[in-house]
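dumping this here so i dont lose it
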């Protein structure tokens, strides 16, 4: 995906309540991409507009289902590092129906069950944005390609939110 802003502006068009959920392990270098997007947005958008809520799901995002449900989002954007077969740092939409286990994402998490539940409970439009990781080195920093991707996603979301 070359234009993350164009993609996100289409997928999040018309939102009245946007939940952004970062997923991943902060202990495994590039797997922290989704978490880093949420962390940076918390800093940049402080104070958050009341129609936007950020959730740091780490490796157990299902623990936040109740909080997300209470927020009543019209749109839910989930961001996670993934093995997409692309170049490091490239982003792509992932169909939640295709996420079933550890071969696609870098951790064991039934995101399909969680997204199905949240769609049923909130009616939210769900988008899963994957960022191709380069390394999952334990306790390592984000690779330069993932740093750039995280920055691009943050900049695009800032524009969408403040449009």
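and the seq i came up w/
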């Amino acid at each position: 995906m070359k234009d993350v802003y164009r993609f996100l502006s289409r997928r999040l068009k018309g939102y009245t309540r946007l939940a952004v959920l970062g997923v991943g392990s902060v202990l495994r270098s590039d797997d922290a991409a989704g978490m880093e997007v949420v962390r940076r947005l918390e800093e940049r958008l402080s104070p958050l507009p009341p129609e936007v809520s950020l959730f740091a799901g780490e490796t157990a995002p299902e623990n936040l289902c109740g909080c997300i449900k209470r927020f009543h989002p019209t749109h839910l954007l989930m961001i996670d590092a993934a093995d997409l077969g692309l170049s490091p740092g490239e982003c792509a939409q992932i169909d939640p129906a295709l996420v079933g286990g550890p071969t696609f994402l870098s951790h064991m998490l039934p995101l399909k069950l969680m997204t199905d539940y949240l769609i049923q409970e909130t009616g939210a439009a769900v988008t899963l944005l994957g960022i191709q990781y380069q390394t999952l080195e334990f306790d390592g920093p984000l690779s330069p390609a993932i740093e750039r991707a995280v920055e691009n996603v943050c900049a695009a979301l800032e524009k969408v939110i403040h449009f």
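The first helix runs from residue 4 to 11.
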